[in-house]
Amino acid sequence: MTTSHRFCVAPMMDWTDRHDRFFLRQLSRHMRLYTEMVTADAIRHGERDYLLGFHPVEHPVALQLGGSDPGKLAEAAMIGADYGYDEINLNVGCPSDRVQSGRFGACLMREPDLVAECLAAMADRVKIDVTLKCRLGVDEQDPEEALFELVASAHRVGIRHFIIHARKAWLEGLSPKENRDIPPLDYDIVYRLKQRYPDAVVVINGGIATLEEAARHLEKVDGVMLGRAAYKNPYQLADVDQLFFGETADKISREDVLAALIPYAEDLCARGIPLHALTRHILGLYQNCPRARLFRRFLSEQAPKSTATADLLREVLDFMASAPQQDEPHPSRLPAAGFASIP
């Protein structure tokens, strides 16, 4: 196991794009990042630089694929490896209707032999790790039977790395959003899976909100993966390197994170990419801090404008660097100009 698997940020559709990953990498040098799911057909026929391009600073970074055709997945995995990804991950956990209609995602938990065939075909074409991310089961499946059968099939073809979202997926009756919260969590099944396969890397995912919770899971499994909690309150990730990877350096400040994003934002704007492509991901940087509401509102209102440039981040940085240690009693106390003029 590479040590970066001790702490990972989950693949999340519409969230973990290359701009978000660049931002997150400023917070931790070592945690493993994952792309949004990309279908094998999209990679084979689409604009590859758009779909697969990433900044070198993102390493270690994994590409998550969706699909159910072994040949197409193998070709997509080879293309991803050629782009420089550190890992290829197969999605057998997404419960959306669109994914089901394409015969990939969580519905594949009903076809463990096909999943194993796909994984074997991918692993045969690349030299980097091929991994599996799945749920505990779908619909009326018994979670213990479904999960252990799927992992056993993958294990037989040489797969040794499993990321388990510790919930079932209900393809009938629950929306994708509801599937993120309503099915109950069962971490103990994942712990038992690790006991059954001591030679495998088992990473646990689902409902983990804090680094303290993550540390407790590491007593039973090899790694933890945070999703929405990492996206909505990203600055907690600034403690990851010290807590999980033994780093001794001081953690980065929020202001240093913003400063690091300015050259990146300048490059985006120079290439005609809207500033909002980056800033939409950083709205939670000052979660629970003074002026956090002003920070979110200013970026939400100003960054989507066609005239927005990296100077907006400079303005934000100057303002937030002067923030008080405690919340100010009323926004009218702020200077009535620029960023601070927001009521």
What this model shows, in words?
It is a single chain. This protein is α/β, with parallel strands linked by helices. Helices cover 41% and strands 13% of the residues. The chain contains 16 helices and 8 strands. The chain has helices at residues 18-25, 40-45, 48-52, 70-83, 97-101, 112-125, 143-156, 176-179, 187-196, 211-217, 228-232, 240-245, 254-270, 276-279, 292-302, 311-321; strands spanning 7-9, 32-39, 61-66, 87-92, 129-134, 161-165, 201-205, 223-226. It has an 8-stranded parallel beta barrel with strand order 1-2-3-4-5-6-7-8, surrounded by 6 helices. Helix 1 links the parallel strand 1 (7-9) and strand 2. Helix 4 runs parallel beside helix 6 (112-125), helix 6 (112-125) packs parallel to helix 7 (143-156) and helix 13 runs antiparallel to helix 16 (311-321). The longest helix has 17 residues, at 254-270.
- Put simply, the count of helices is 16
Based on secondary structure, the structural category is alpha/beta
The radius of gyration over CA amounts to 21 Å
Sheet-strand content, in percent, reads: 5-15%
Largest beta-sheet characterization: 8 strands, parallel, barrel
